[in-house]
Amino acid sequence: MKDLKEKLMEYEVVIGLEVHAELTTNSKIYCNCATRFGGEPNTRCCPVCTGMPGALPVLNKKVVEYAVKAGLATNCSITRYSRQDRKNYFYPDLPKAYQTSQQDRPLCTNGYLEIEVDGLLKKVGIHRIHIEEDAGKLIHNESGNNTLIDYNRCGVPLIEIVTRPELNSSAEVKVFIEKLKAILEYTEVSDCKMQEGSLRVDINLSVRPKGESTLGNRTEIKNLNSISAIVRAIEYEAKRQIDEVKKGRKIIQETRRWDDEKGVSFPMREKNETVDYRFFPEPDLCPIIIDEAWLNEIKSSVPELPDERKNRIIAEYKLPEYDANFITGSKTLADYFEKAACKSKNPKAISNWLMGDLSKKLKENNVEITNIPVTPENLAKLVEFIDSGVISGKIAKQVFEIMWVTSGDPAEIIENKGLRVINDADEIRKVVIKVFEENPKAIEDIRKGKEKSIGFLIGQVMRKTNGKAAPDIANQLIRKELDRYFDS
Amino acid sequence: MDLTRLTISEALEKIKNKEISIIELVRSYLKQIENLNKTIGAYITVCREDCERMGPILQEKLDCGENIPLAGIPMALSDNIITRGVLTTCASKMLHNFIPQYDSTVNEKLRHSGAILLGKLNMDEFSIGSSNENSYFGPVKNPWDPERVPGGSCGGAAAAVAANMACFALGSDACGSVRQPSSFCGVVGLKPTYGLISRYGLIAFASSLEQIGPITRTVEDCAIVLNAIAGYDPKDSTSANIKHPDYTAFLKDNIKGLKIGLPKEYIEKGLQKEIKQKLCEALTVFESMGAVVEEISIPMTKYAIPAYYIIASAEASSNLARYDGIRYGYRAEDCESLEELYKKTRSEGFGFEVKRTIMLGAYFISRNCYDSYYKKALKVRRLISEDFKKAFNDIDVIITPTVPKTAFKTGRKDDPIQMCMSNIYTVSANLAGLCAISIPHGTDCNGLPVGLQLIGKPFDEGTLIRAAYAFEKNT
Asked: What is the ipTM of this complex?
């Protein structure tokens, strides 16, 4: 009986996230060094960010503004008198042996994001957002059997966004992160380039029998840097924990590392005792006081957010919700869409291109939409040429391919390559007659009632005209020719 | 003429009148250092070549009519003040080989003012100590009596100025580290208001308490040096963005109507008889000049030492964590693992007092102790500040002895309580962010200097200088 109960028992997965986003400020959080990604090791650092004796931090005001912006965009309360604290621990990538962060008084608290999964709306609480500094990078040099340290990333400003444990599946987490990413991109707080590590996600996951209100022991999976890794790690870990619990084992509270190649997570070698970071207020920095004027200034800098933009795009361009959702999922995509759509009579067609051929191209070539040869204006022109019957949809794909390579104007491409639709009935009729002569069997089939073969004839006409024959005219002429044929 | 006896203003005057040249002045100091440093041990590093090079350069600029306020004045800095290109050790094995590639704001300012850096001064390792016996480079001796300590942590700075081995010096003061040795060595030491002097380039010990301060032979010199080093620094977030006055304008022999407060808690017990007597004399001097003396009360002051100890060691435990052997300074050899490298480097690189302070400080801010120690200490600190604020509603300056006893004999450094007690009158000014000055006031029966402390309102160094100057002129 007990076994049966166990088998029937359903489990609920409970997930909370800690998201680290690098801010797009030009300079670091406590000094003037540049924040740009990469660079020769140890060329973007100074006595301050390398923690040399006697050097002192000076807070970059932009960091506060960006974090507050992120807080406002995620419905947080803004802490008007906040503070920075030292988080003390030893590691070679942390040159001061403490990370300046925020403990008791984070800049933003108590926000939420609304997500939609399978048609259901859900509010996911955001516990807090605080500012902190990034650490350097260790480079393990296997041939030399030593470890080198690059401090370029040291002091790059981060916000840490901590959600409440209110997510219950990998699908919810995926939608939540996509939405959060979109918001951070829209507000230009972070470029959210997961592959460069500017957005990193830690997952806290536990399982419990459905209906239970207390949380189970959780594990933490650190530093996931792609959405697919996040989804896979969650699914693996949820299954692992449920299996453990079903076997009657206790979940060990621990930090795990996800191996994306092998598709497994394993415990990180760490001491069992929890680390005491000995947080205390950073004496080298003053409290951050955000007065009404400053807050209003930041408020006014918050741009239109994804949800608002989605609703506006639906209303303004009469797009289906599905399309609007897709397009507003990324700010740059939405920007591109609007630039093209405002020049076009057929926004839906633009949307189709963006969701179809264009997205495929971006993925194939691994490029950003801000960086492609096809301008939004030219895409709008291309759509116009299709709609006005200058070229066929099939030809348009050819034109698009050429535009992608040469960044040319579609009008010129069509003219130079002679891709314009043939509307001249006489010209098409000549081709039709030729096709009839060459395919007596097909005509015989049609006579016997095999209607399908008409399509074959049309195909032959298109082939002989390189796809340029206006299909409706070709169709008409073929039917006329057949009538004449059978009559005679 | 012994040029090392000249005060800053006298030396400047003589250089200006071409009675002496800068290089002569500098060389007489270098000679004095050569003669005395073996016995006194005030210097860790002497910058002979730089001095020889800078002297003529400054002389030429001056001869061309350039206005350089401290042109050619030979000075020295405590070795916790960063000097670009010059060894900066903090008197520790940990930094025994550390030559910074950047500069402290005060050194930059002094360089621009034309002062010449004679060298770097001995101190208690990482500013931890009150007798200057905790230095990796050996103890400093009191020039008045080599059997006795010069005080600490900036014992080298006070001893150097007292023994004419520097025209002036800068030290740092977190609980009395400028004033207590100044008192022990019979010189003038100022702890400016927190935020008046940039801490950029001061190797941090207790960040929220310490300020760089001048040690000079006269109050006038103190005002001159303060003018050169005070002021807002965008590189230090805790530096105050205010305009400071010309401190030499306060060098007036007139304190009529000045209200002086005498905290009754400071003259109760443990005070050396002669120091008490000296204090009474001082009050008479002030009254004779037209000042009014009132008794005041700073009740929370009895908790000042423990509160200081908790806050300072907590901050120090974090500030000193960066010395891990990874990037610079001392690194232990033959380590198999990262953990071993940390442990060996820090065990071997730090002296005993430093390690004691780090251990205590880490304990005070550990998760289970934070509320009962660190948070409570911050509360006491706030209450002490309020006590002073209240007192300053009715008075202009507070008068106290600088220390309860004159310089003690060497070899007592293993008595940390005794060490702490020598800062009992000085520490409150740091907790409350006030300014305070120690000025010499004669000697005791052993011929040892006695110091008098004046404490002022935040950023009211002017009044301190005025009162101290008047006192100096009338004693």
From this structure: 0.95
